[in-house]
Amino acid sequence: MFADRARIFIRSGKGGDGHVSFRREKYVPAGGPDGGDGGNGGDLILVVDPRLNTLVDFRHKRKYIAGDGKEGSKRHCTGASGEDMIVKVPPGTIVKDVESGKVILDMANRTEPVVLLKGGRGGKGNTHYVTSTMQAPKYAQPGQDARELWVDLELKVIADVGLVGFPNVGKSTLLSRVTNANPKIANYHFTTLNPTLGVVDLDDGNGFVIADIPGIIEGASEGVGLGLEFLRHIERTKVMIHLVDAASVEGRDPIEDIYAINKELESYNEELAKRPQVIAANKIDAMPKEDRDVIVEMLEEEFGPQGIRIFPISAVSGEGVKELLWHVNQLLKELPEETVEFEQEFFLDFQKEDTPDSIVVDKAEPGVFTVEGPKVERMLGYTNLESEKGFEFFQKFMKENDVLKRLEELGIEEGDTVKVYNLEFDYYK
């Protein structure tokens, strides 16, 4: 079964918490702080594996979670970092945000691993919060939260040339003649149920990758037949070969077929209809010479003014095929070599503002608000909240830094909870 779509849950690792501890040695009754830092959470990493060609493995495993960092310990020992989660995908995979449907990442031209979700940073131990006035800090920094996301994976086949046409016009026959691909061939509509790729090898190192894209019929862009299942695979192609049945074996009009397919391509993605096209008038071996000339002349009169070349061919005998392939090869040389890549539309914003003086005030859920940031962490490190004086200083800090004002702007009410890292307070005016 060819699988070209999958929905998975991905999560990086949480950072380990910093540790609060004090040196305890014989004859040293009041040793200094020695809490170690927490370990970093593991990253969620995507890697292109050229050996893969479908997303079928993601139907059996739906969750990919990196390891959490371990908490720091006494004697300045840093916790172990979490293990990275490496997710292997086939070339051409696009990662989309489930909620918005927008592109997060296109793996088409990625040769190096990509860190999609960064693991949470490990928290600092209480050793870091020693000051001249606070020699025994009882606070350590919590580890940074994990980042998680539901994403859709879509596979868009990477091919230079897309071979399109109505069912039973000879696409599979042509592909098997010009490449090493072995598509199933029979005289039935929709015989080809999977996109089939093949490599065209021409002389002197010339050549290209061609894909037989099935299922494109009238209404395909609206989901008729198998259209939507395969239209996505043509989005990366640079040149389109329209294969038509010049002999009208099934009574089809070649000119109407080309316009119908172009209409579906344009409805699905306007850019597709603008890409270079070539028309291959197939099955000329089943026609008398005078009939061949008539149909080729009709096609040239209709599409020649649009800059589209017509090539009469026979996929069965090979007549005219070489001329077609060399023309397509020349078109490709005039286009950029890099694979078509989709621009990023959705930007992950898991990192909170991290300037030295930043304070981030958020509404986590109804009735619960959070106050975080480097400035808050430093304040907690040198403030003893267990003393009356220390708590008064904490309240003054919250007021002078407009934290209370920002909480009110977010709609906080009396009795709501304010979380300041691992501390919780009830809000009262």
Descriptive notes:
The chain has 429 residues and is of the alpha/beta class. Helices cover 21% and strands 22% of the residues. Strand 13 (277-282), helix 5 and strand 14 (309-312) form a beta-alpha-beta unit. Mean pLDDT is 82; it is low at 183-193 and 219-228.
Key descriptive features of the protein:
single chain, 429 residues, alpha/beta, 6-stranded mixed β-sheet, 5-stranded mixed β-sheet
Draw up the topology in text.
Elements: E1 5-11, E2 44-48, E3 63-65, E4 85-89, E5 93-97, E6 103-106, E7 114-117, E8 148-155, E9 161-164, H1 171-178, E10 196-201, E11 207-212, H2 227-231, E12 239-245, H3 254-268, H4 270-274, E13 277-282, H5 289-303, E14 309-312, H6 321-333, E15 360-365, E16 368-372, H7 374-381, H8 388-400, H9 403-409, E17 417-420, E18 423-426
Parallel strand pairs: 1-3, 2-4, 9-11, 9-12, 12-13, 13-14, 16-17
Antiparallel strand pairs: 1-8, 2-7, 5-6, 5-8, 10-11, 15-16, 17-18
Q: Regions with pLDDT < 50 over 5+ consecutive residues?
A: 183-193, 219-228
Provide the structure class.
alpha/beta
Number of helices: 9
Question: How much beta, percentage-wise?
Answer: 15-25%
Number-wise, the strands total 18
What summary fits the major beta sheet? 6 strands, mixed
Helix content: 10-25%
| Oligomeric state | single chain
Give the termini separation: 63 Å
